[in-house]
Write a structure and sequence with these properties.
It is a single chain. A hairpin with a 2-residue loop joins strand 2 (10-16) and strand 3 (19-26). The strands form two sheets. This protein has a three-stranded antiparallel beta sheet, covered by helices on one side. A two-stranded parallel ribbon has the order 4-5. The termini are far apart. The chain contains five helices and five strands. The protein has 154 residues and is of the alpha+beta class. 23% of the residues are buried. Helix 3 packs across helix 4.
């Protein structure tokens, strides 16, 4: 699987039938093989995003999960660049306010970080909460999008 270097750390990319099925931060070393096809396009769009030139990704995704997880990930994908929402608001949008913990679990299982923007989900109190890539990366992603962060992570 290709591993790319980025401003936020190394990123593992997994494709299936030319569709992106996984994008995760990793401590594994970068692959030195030439990039082509979909992997090159993922890298290009990520670089544009990290440099502030891209607000919307245009990649073919394949979401592998339960129907509920897919519905949460699709709702997360509708959150516009530079905006945030809460776990509670997302569970209400999905028509099940009592499912807040299940929504949180689905967000935690997001297989395509950055592109499916689960970093845009914050706590009801406005604080940053869990992120599979780490809270420092979540804060950095929100700052790339111009969202002011008011908390100290440490």
């Amino acid at each position: 699987m290709p591993i790319l270097s980025s401003t936020l750390g190394n990123i593992l990319i997994k494709l299936e039938d030319d569709k992106l099925i996984q994008l995760q931060f990793t401590e594994d070393p970068v692959n030195e093989e030439p990039l082509k096809g979909m992997v090159a396009e993922v890298k290009n769009q990520l670089e544009e995003y990290f440099s502030g030139k891209r607000k919307v990704f245009d990649l073919t995704l394949e979401l592998n999960g339960t129907d509920f997880q897919k519905s949460v990930w699709e709702a997360v994908n509708e959150i516009p660049f530079g905006q945030t929402t809460t776990y509670m608001k997302l569970s209400q949008k999905l028509g099940n306010p009592a499912a807040i913990r299940a929504v949180g679990a689905a967000i935690g299982a997001n297989p395509i970080l950055v592109i499916l923007p689960c970093h845009r989900i914050i706590g009801t109190n406005g604080q940053l909460t869990g992120y599979a890539g780490g809270l420092e990366r979540k804060q950095a992603l929100l700052e790339i999008e111009g969202f002011p962060i008011q908390q100290n992570l440490f």
